[in-house]
Structure formats: structure tokens, C-alpha cells
Specification:
Chain A is an alpha/beta fold. Helices cover 54% and strands 15% of the residues of chain A. The relative contact order of chain B is 0.13. Classes of the chains: A alpha/beta (240), B alpha/beta (456). The structure holds iron/sulfur cluster (SF4).
Chain lengths: 240, 456
């Protein structure tokens, strides 16, 4: 299968290894993963900040960068949600209407893609680690998946999933929210981390790298004894 | 626009409230308790999502044809012997009240009404030496403390049991370790006297029923019963959005309202009051008035997106599950309507000041939208408000410009690939010093970003 991969802007900037992991996994599953080097950002950052003009410019760029007919895979439910839902506000009933529909029907979150498109049932890889799982708001409530990420986690041999209290509570990142209201954002993060550390797990795992970006910075500031990883990171690690 | 004072105040309140462990304990206790009850309460619906869809239809029908239904309500209510007035703002209400009560009234009892909070109704009466007593227990408590309610359905949610015991001990010398039941009994006794002395009862309404001309009130303490029936005059102050087409709609609205507000299957008392005492009746006021209040609601009504916020049935559930509300509590919003839906409506209801920052104080986690019994897309409306705020420059120019600048970088692959890791890291530290760095560690910048390394 041929797919186009979208690497969200913050992963591009902060987490090149997380991006590599996506390609590594897809390739190992026999997927031919393409990367259009012109791609940049889906526009969510300006959109969530109310800057719709800028968001629309980025959105039209995205439609152009991902024209074609391949399935689009992105390691972020929140970017995919941006495309699938909010792009409609820009392009519905405009000259880009068909391009819009086309891209919206081809784009998947990475975890969703593995389970529901590739329909993988097992994963060859072992990683002995205890983990707890944070349901990101965008995956759970916006994108609408709860069981798939857990299914994927359970396929990695050696993973011991300990459910945490309030796993569906927001981590406090929220894009520009985390910068406009840092105290609030960090207090929400602290609550999340407390619940995570209460499980005694080695890793706090989520599908959304942006949540982890924020949580990790709180962990490092406070020298908390817990690590963060996406499911894809664990899968890549388990490949040895 | 110059830096908005309210925004500044809001930010400094947040700083303090984020650290207010005592408040957090109080809120957590009550709200965890609420959540258990809520889960239990919605169990009564075989399929809550289809029920919600039905409610959404009822409410959008009510709001889209508001004029028609309000006129129908007016006709029917008058037929039942009531009098009805339309008020555009607080001053209209005050003039009407003056007209209705003249100089004859010394004492007023009130049951819960957010519309009266909106217009500072109590202060208006007190300025004329009229005694006003709130009769809902939570409202009574915040009145004693000289505060506004911190929550639309649970006015004293920010107070712990100990805070309340202490308050009564200080005000009435009751026992410093009185139980909740003892305090309730004590207040009941106090209030009984107020009920018998009051010449006027003022209430709000949960719904206004067009086809029967009735006002509906749902409650658990019985105080609304007495407020609306005992004094000789009853005045209802209700927002125009409270209208519903038919009393058959109550079969849907009432159970959903109570399960979302308190987790009850249905509240203890549910009143439908259709007018003053009729000739053959023994109870009830001699005169009954309804004042329909606009007070900025038309700003919401004329906007296709924002109109949906008027579907709200004021259950308070969105506040109860909001992670931001759970940290900062209602008073921090500085607005009568707070929590997620208050953050949507306040910027439009309070055009005398700039409240748009409230729409940004959300991580957009979507819990409010998920729980809302009438399916209001609250997080979408917050996003919509943000776009209005940028368009109308209701947020500090520096914040809007920063995003513009960032977007400029994001639009160009070349710019995104510029700079070494040390330059990026330095730039991040300079830009986000206060906003990111105080409570969090700075991110480690990789040597090269993904795109650049992939191209190599
Ligand atoms: S917006 Fe929805 S959840 Fe919030 S108070 Fe109104 S009806 Fe309840």
C-alpha cells in the first residue's frame, strides 16, 4: 500500500525521532510511506488562536501538498480532526470543495490507520514495560476513538497497561492555551501526572505527541520519576 | 485596543486560584460526588443520545420561532389573569418594578433566579430600603457572605461545609460544629418568618410554556413553592430564551435537566404556574406578573452560530466537568454566567466591557460539548468567539501579531528549516521565557528538524 505521511509541525521541529518511528513502523508493515518535503502545518495553531485568515492559508497549502489519491496518515488525531472537521468551514461550497472532500475522505490518524485500515492483528516486537494511558481529548472526544489505541498497545508483547484515574481528563496543553494561561495549563498537567505516577507505571503513554511535549516539560522541571512515549514510540522501541 | 483591565485581572486571579489547594479540595469533593450521581441519573434513559437529539430539536424550534412562541405565551398568560411586560435591559426592569410595587413594599422573598443576578436586582431593592431575602439555601449563604453565586445551579459550590458552619457561627452564633442538617433546619426557621412577612415574592423560571401560558420552576427545597404562593404579589423575571412551545415538551426537558444538574431522576418539586389566584382558589398571589428580559440576548439571537447558545437550559453540567472551572471556580470569571457556556455568551451579553479573553481560557478539551444535554457545540462556539476576537481586535495586538508571525514561518518550508538548534532554542527561551519557562522546563531542540534531516 502507498500512503502519504503528514508530520505535524511540532513533531517536525521537536521530535524528529518520533517522525522516523512512524516511517519505520509503516515500512516494517509493508507500507510504502511517502513524504512530500513541501509540507508544513495543518493550520491548527492559528485556527485555535482565532487567526482564521492565516489558518485558511495553511489549509489551502495543505490541500495542495496532499493532492493525489493516496491515503494520508498523520501521527496526530488533532491535526486530522482539524482537516476533517474545521477545513469544512473554509472550503465548503468554494472552488476547493472537491479537493476538500477528497482529502477529508483519505486522511487517518496513525493509530486508526493501523487498526482499522491495515487491520493489523499482531505486532512482532517485545518491550517489557509498565505503562499507563492518557486518552488525549482530540483522540477520544474529537476523533472519537477509545479502544483502538489500547488494542494497539496490547499487541506489543511485554507491555503491562495499568489504567490511570481520570484517563480522559485533559492534560492542559491546548495549544496557545498553554502559553496564554501557563499556571492553569501546568496545574492541569500536574493533576494528570499525579494520576499517572500513582499507577507506578514506567511510561505515561498517549497517541498525541503535543500532550507529551507539555507533560514532559513539567516532568523535567520537577524531576518526576516517569517517562513519556507515544504508542508508535513503544512499537519502534519494541522492534529492537 | 489597549490592554484590557479585565483580562489582566483575570490572569492574575488564575495565578492565585491555580494554587488554591483548599478551594480545589472543596470543588473536587463536591464535583466527584456530582459525577457519580450524574452517571446514575442518566441511567434512566435507555438511549441518552437520542434523547439529547430530541431536546436539541425542541430547543432549536423554541429559539428559531421565539417571537411566535413568546407572543403565544403572552396571550395565554394574560388570559389566565396575569400581566406581562417586556424589558430590554436592567433599567426597564427597575422602572417596571417601581410601577408595579409603588411605595408599598418593605419586604421581599426571592427564589433562585439568574436573571435577577444579571441586573443586580437585590441592590436595586435594597437601595430603596426594601429588605430582600434569598430563600434558596445556597443563595442565602452567598447573600450572607455578600457574594454572587459561583455556579448557576449550586451558588455556594466554592464553599466547604466548614466554611458554611463558620459563617453561621459568626452571623448567628450557632454551634461551631453544627451539622449540615442542623444548619438547614436553622435556616428554614429563619426563612419561615421572612415568608410570612414578605409582601412580594420574586422568582425566575426554568421554562415558559407557550401553549399553556405557564411558568415552570423546578426545585428541591420547597422554597420556590412558598416564594411564588405565599406573598400577595408574585413577579417572575425570565430571560426570553426560556420559552418552549408546549407543556408536553416538559416530559423531555425536566428529567434531563435534573439528571444533568444534580443527578436526580427528577427534582423534588416541579411547578407549573399559570397565573394568579383564581376566584375559586384558596392559595396563591392576588397578582402575578411576568417580566421578559432581553438584556443582550438579541446579540446572540441574530448570529447563526451563537444562537445555539440560547438553547442552554442552565443545568450547569458543563461547568461541573470543565477542567478549567474545577481549578478556578466560578467567581474568577467575573461574570454571572461562568464556566464553558458563560465563556461563550458573556462576551456578547456584556457589551459594556471586553470579556473575549474568557473564550481563550479553555483547552478545548470538548468535555462540555460531550455532556451538554441539548448538544450545544460549546468548544466550536469558543473557537468562533476567538475568531471574532481577532477580527475585532478584542485581544491584545501583541498576542494576535505573535500568531501571525508564527503562521508566516509555518507557511514556508524554507523558514521552518532555518536556524541551528542553538538559535531555535535561544529564540524559544526569549519568546516564551515567562509564558513557558517558569513552571516548565524548556524543550530540547534537536540538531536538525525532521524535514531537513530527511532531505539529506
Ligand atoms: S450549555 Fe449545556 S451543559 Fe452547559 S449549562 Fe447549558 S445546557 Fe447545561
Amino acid at each position: 500500500m502507498e500512503v502519504d505521511v503528514f508530520i505535524p509541525c511540532y513533531i517536525d521541529q521537536f521530535y524528529p525521532e518520533k517522525a522516523e518511528n512512524i516511517f519505520k513502523i509503516l515500512t516494517s508493515l509493508g507500507v510504502n510511506a511517502h513524504y512530500n518535503p513541501n509540507q508544513t502545518c495543518c493550520g491548527q495553531l492559528p485556527f485555535n488562536s482565532g487567526n482564521r485568515v492565516e489558518a485558511e492559508e495553511l489549509a489551502s497549502k495543505f490541500l495542495k501538498d496532499f493532492s493525489g489519491s493516496k491515503i494520508i496518515v498523520a501521527p496526530s488525531a488533532s491535526c486530522v480532526h482539524m482537516v476533517k472537521k474545521h477545513y469544512t468551514k473554509f472550503f465548503f461550497n468554494t472552488s476547493l470543495h472537491l479537493e476538500l472532500k477528497n482529502v477529508q475522505s483519505r486522511i487517518y490518524d496513525f493509530n486508526d490507520f493501523l487498526i482499522n485500515v491495515l487491520k493489523i492483528e499482531k505486532w512482532e516486537g517485545r518491550l517489557n514495560a509498565s505503562v499507563c494511558f492518557h486518552d488525549s481529548c482530540s483522540m477520544l472526544r474529537h476523533y472519537g476513538l477509545k479502544t483502538e489505541p489500547r488494542q494497539l498497545l496490547s499487541m506489543i508483547q511485554g507491555i503491562d497497561l495499568i489504567e490511570m484515574k481520570d484517563s480522559s481528563e485533559c492534560c492542559g496543553f491546548g495549544g496557545s492555551f498553554s502559553v496564554k494561561f501557563p499556571e492553569l495549563s501546568v496545574e492541569m498537567g500536574m493533576r494528570k501526572l499525579q494520576n499517572a505516577m500513582d499507577t507506578g507505571a514506567e511510561y505515561l503513554v498517549s497517541t498525541e505527541a503535543s500532550c507529551l511535549f507539555h507533560l514532559d516539560s513539567i516532568i523535567r522541571k520537577n524531576n518526576f520519576n516517569i517517562k513519556t512515549a507515544t504508542i508508535a514510540d513503544l512499537m519502534a522501541m519494541s522492534m529492537g | 485596543m489597549s490592554e484590557n483591565i479585565l483580562y489582566k485581572e483575570f490572569k492574575s486571579t488564575l495565578g492565585a486560584q491555580s494554587q488554591n489547594k483548599k478551594l480545589h479540595q472543596t470543588l473536587n469533593k463536591s464535583l466527584e460526588n456530582y459525577h457519580q450521581k450524574y452517571l446514575n441519573g442518566i441511567n434512566q434513559f435507555e438511549n441518552i443520545s437520542s434523547f439529547k437529539e430530541k431536546l436539541q430539536i425542541i430547543r432549536s424550534k423554541s429559539i428559531l420561532q421565539m417571537e411566535k412562541y413568546l407572543l403565544q405565551f403572552e396571550g395565554n398568560f394574560k388570559k389566565n389573569g396575569g400581566e406581562l411586560f417586556w424589558a430590554d435591559d436592567a433599567n426597564d426592569v427597575f422602572n417596571l418594578i417601581q410601577h408595579i410595587i409603588g411605595d408599598n413594599i418593605k419586604s421581599v422573598v426571592k427564589s433562585k433566579s439568574m436573571a435577577t443576578e444579571e441586573i443586580d436586582f437585590n441592590a436595586f431593592l435594597e437601595n430603596q430600603n426594601i429588605k430582600v431575602t434569598e430563600t434558596d439555601l445556597g443563595e442565602y449563604i452567598v447573600q450572607l457572605r455578600g457574594e454572587k453565586p459561583s455556579h448557576i445551579t449550586a451558588p455556594a459550590l466554592h464553599l466547604s461545609k466548614d466554611d458554611i458552619t463558620l459563617l453561621f457561627h459568626e452571623k448567628f452564633e450557632s454551634s461551631p460544629d453544627a451539622s449540615a442538617e442542623e444548619i438547614t433546619a436553622f435556616v428554614r426557621k429563619l426563612l419561615r418568618r421572612e415568608f410570612t412577612e414578605a409582601e412580594l415574592g420574586v422568582s425566575g423560571a426554568n421554562f415558559l410554556v407557550a401553549d399553556s401560558g405557564s411558568i415552570c420552576i423546578t426545585e428541591n427545597e420547597g422554597n420556590a413553592s412558598l416564594t411564588t404562593a405565599w406573598p400577595n404579589i408574585h413577579i417572575v423575571l425570565a430571560g426570553i430564551e426560556k420559552i418552549i412551545p408546549s407543556f408536553t415538551d416538559l416530559g423531555y426537558l425536566w428529567p434531563v435537566l435534573s439528571s444533568h444538574a444534580t443527578g436526580q431522576k427528577i427534582s423534588v418539586y416541579n411547578h407549573m404556574i399559570s397565573g394568579p389566584r383564581q376566584e375559586e382558589e384558596g392559595d396563591g398571589p392576588e397578582k402575578m406578573y411576568v417580566i421578559l428580559l432581553n438584556n443582550g440576548r438579541d446579540n446572540l439571537l441574530i448570529n447563526k452560530e451563537l444562537r445555539q447558545s440560547l438553547h442552554c437550559i442552565k443545568c450547569g453540567a458543563c461547568s461541573n466537568i470543565c477542567p478549567v472551572y474545577k481549578i478556578i471556580s466560578g467567581h474568577s470569571y467575573n461574570s454571572v454566567y461562568n464556566g464553558p457556556i458563560g465563556s461563550v455568551t458573556t462576551p456578547h451579553l456584556r457589551t459594556d466591557a471586553n470579556f473575549f479573553h474568557l473564550s481563550f481560557a479553555s483547552s478545548l478539551c470538548g468535555k462540555c460539548t460531550e455532556i451538554c444535554p441539548v448538544n450545544i457545540p460549546i468548544d466550536d462556539l469558543l473557537l468562533y468567539n476567538r475568531s471574532l476576537a481577532v477580527e475585532k481586535e478584542k485581544m491584545p495586538k501583541s498576542e494576535i501579531r505573535a500568531i501571525k508571525l508564527l503562521s508566516r514561518i509555518l507557511k514556508s518550508r524554507k523558514r521552518m528549516n532555518m536556524g541551528s538548534s542553538s538559535i531555535r532554542s535561544l529564540a524559544f527561551k526569549i519568546v516564551f521565557r515567562k509564558k513557558w519557562g517558569v513552571l516548565r522546563a524548556y524543550p530540547d531542540f534537536p540538531k536538525t528538524n525532521f524535514n531537513k534531516s530527511r532531505k539529506k
